[in-house]
Amino acid sequence: MRTASRGGTGRAVTARCGLVARGVLYVLTGLLAVRVAFGEPVGEADRQGALATLAGQPFGRVLVWAVGIGVVCMVLWRLSEAVFGAAGPRGDRAGKRLASAARAVFYAGVAFSVLSFAAGSGGGGSGDQQSRDVTARAFELPGGQWLVGAAGVGIAAAGIGIAVRAAQRRFRDHLRMGGASQGWRRAVEFLGVSGGIARGAVFAVAGGFVCHAALRYDPARAKGVDDTLRSFAATPAGPWLLVAVAIGLMLFGVFSWAMARWREV
Questions:
Q1: Rounded to 10 degrees, what is the CA torsion of 237, 43, 126, 249?
Q2: How far is Cα 171 from Cα 198, in angstroms, rounded to an integer?
Q3: pLDDT in tens, 109-149
Q4: Cα distance between residue 230 and residue 243, in whole Å
């Protein structure tokens, strides 16, 4: 039996605002990664680079604040799912509540970074440097090498899970497209599969780098999104693999906008 949507209009508004903001970040990150693949002199192809690009547009600071507020909405939505249960089949199961809580923590970190950038503090430095700093601090803890290794395995597993669920079209369980044409349904399905696989690949490879840092006991081997994306261009496939992944990230951003329209929340 399908669980009724919980939280009413308030949850719907926060969820849809959050999904729109997430889409903006992914589309801009993908665009920057495409430019990197073609050798253009850009900054970082990650969240910080996306925010810098947005800030450089007319009314850019306002747009950055809007994205930050949108990500806060994402946090509130995921928190509401953790507390009250998610919409959809068996949305009140403990596993789904825990997954929503984990997502809320993740997006809380994203929100802090975006709002810090909007406030003019730079958002905590580059994503690559943040990854190295966090890894170095983790190594200083008791059993730090094991903690870093476990974190790397968790990130890689999450990425593989994202890609597998996308390939299985699990996102269809959350879509309510009763009034949409068959063409729209096919388009959203294409966006969800291609975008989800690309997003999962980035997480999986980033997790692999964290595992490598743990094995070598070297925080410099941990990579953020920018360095992870650039590593695709260093494969035998060359920059074309990075182009494919970058386009996938942009498609995931557009998929997030489609979810803002049709997801059951």
A1: -50
A2: 15
A3: 999 999 999 998 765 566 778 888 899 999 999 999 999 99
A4: 10
Enter the tokens of residue 162.
């994202």
* Residue 166 near residue 198, CB atoms below 8 Å: no
Q: Is the pLDDT of residue 33 over 70?
A: yes
Single-letter code of the amino acid located at 44: E
Q: How far apart, in whole angstroms, are the C-alpha atoms of residue 131 and residue 224?
A: 6
